[in-house]
Amino acid sequence: MPSQAVFDFKEKAVYTTSTGAPVSQPYAAQRIGKYGPLLLQDFHHVDVLAHFARERIPERVVHAKGAGAHGYFEVTHDITDLTCAALFDAIGNKAPVTVRFSTVIGEAGTSDSARGPRGMGIKIKTEEGNLDWVFNHTPVFFIRDPAKFSPFVHAQKRDPQTHLRDPDMSWDYLSQNPESIHQVMILFSDRGTPAGYHRTHAYSAHAFKFVNSEGKFVYVKIHVINDAGCKTMTAVEATRLAGEDPDFGIKSLFNDIEAGKYPSYTVYIQTMTSEEAENFRYNILDVTKIWPQAEYPLRPVGKIVLNKNPENYFAEVEQAAFAPSHLVPGIEPSTDPVLQARLFVYPDAQRYRLGVNYGQLAINKPVVPVANFQRDGFMAIKNQGFRPPYQSSILPLQYKAKAYEHVEHEVFLGAALADLSEVTELDFEQPRALWSKVLNDEDRAHLVSNVAGHLGSAKSAEIKARQLSVFAAVDQGLADRIADAIGVLRVQPLKVKPAEEALRFRSSVIV
Ligand code: HEM
């Protein structure tokens, strides 16, 4: 059912063609006599047919299924020591927010209960332009080498021959790329089946840099913590919902907001100086790792409240374009290679999906005026009038100086090389802590049965054994329990390089 506002709204609009001409009978078509051919001169009917044939735009290549809402971000704590972003220059600052939640691998019609990450794209419209946080509900990711992203996604999507999701293909990829194990274990626990889109937390996963007006920076990870807590489901509940109510996530978000039960989140940051980063046990540019909260505590900075449903899903959610590269002065990307690749790929996907002027759509348009030298292209809605499209002396633009000229510790120099990470013992430490310290007995039992249900349906004995060896490298008991559950032989842990050979983080590199 639509929102109450739709029932209450008494519209007096007159039906027209797309060019505004009134039409008395929208369902009528011009033809010769009662039984003759239709007429090409009937612009209204031809236009209706032609428009209908063009209604679909490409769905997002990942994160195709989703739900969205609007609200606001409010600054609750002072972090002016860390960033000069205008958004954060005073406690109480507020900015409008649009959020889109999503599942990742399935197509636009997939179930909201599908196992996998949940995305939370957050667009904050600040007085210095849009700040997008394009986060997932897990604090780590499957890969740390960006060139693996599309092969990884392909292996999780449909088989090229059968057009079926295929457990052999899925585990074939994962077992050969064991740095994925941390994320795999989180997602095969019940955290992989959240009880609704807005019932989870969200994490930047990558380190960003917050830069203050002196050009000093700290590395920052952002956590968006649901004030109502994170709610998950068992595999049995998720499977039931996939059949009975596959859109339950969209529905519960919409209904909660309609009922005034506004989802709210507290935004925290973890920070690290570059010196701390160099002494940290893990490479801070490795998005398969977390920063332990005991060592790097959460510092509250703000809150997000979602208090408004979209009036039009397509215009306000489907056409929303979130990109990690939509940043504001005082917040910069780190050199995490996965983040660096993402800086390019999101706007590129949106140029393809929505058109080159996607930024001019109402939902993506910043609250501040845009003035630059970009012009034309399909669907140029606001083409900047008579403003010269170059640095003109006739009608010069103003240029606002950056608060900082350059960021300290930013010297990267070296020969071009083909970089590919290697797996070491270090990669199993955090998954091991997850298994032995974070999960309780019930969580562990669910993880074992969730993996067994999926890995057990792979046909290849070799793939099953290889993935079991990855689990054994985390914990032999975990691997043995899965092996027993799927009725195959127990295996030895995967042999990898020692932890000392792992790449250490250096903030400035001159080779
Ligand atoms: C190399 C790694 C990655 C690549 C190449 C990649 C690529 C993409 C692409 C092409 C889209 C569709 C964008 C659109 O059409 O608007 C997308 C959506 C998304 N990605 Fe990624 N992604 C990567 C890693 C990540 C990571 C690490 C996260 C979270 C920490 C993430 C979170 C999201 C979210 C939340 C969306 C949906 C945004 C929306 O609702 O519109 N992705 N990704």
TrEMBL record:
Its cofactor is heme. Heme binds at residue 346. It holds the Pfam family Catalase-rel. Residues 16-398 form the Catalase core domain. The active site is at 63, 136. One of its GO terms (molecular function) is metal ion binding. GO terms for cellular component: mitochondrion; peroxisome. It comes from the Eukaryota. The keyword DNA repair does not apply. PROSITE patterns: CATALASE_2, CATALASE_3. The keyword Oxidoreductase applies. One of its GO terms (biological process) is response to hydrogen peroxide. InterPro entries: Catalase, Catalase_AS, Catalase_clade1/3, Catalase_core, Catalase_immune_responsive, Catalase_sf. Coiled coil: none annotated. Keywords: Heme, Hydrogen peroxide, Iron, Metal-binding, Oxidoreductase, Peroxidase. Belongs to the catalase family. PANTHER family: CATALASE, CATALASE T. Catalyzes the degradation of hydrogen peroxide (H(2)O(2)) generated by peroxisomal oxidases to water and oxygen, thereby protecting cells from the toxic effects of hydrogen peroxide. This is Catalase. It comes from Lentinus brumalis. The lineage of its organism: Eukaryota, Fungi, Dikarya, Basidiomycota, Agaricomycotina.
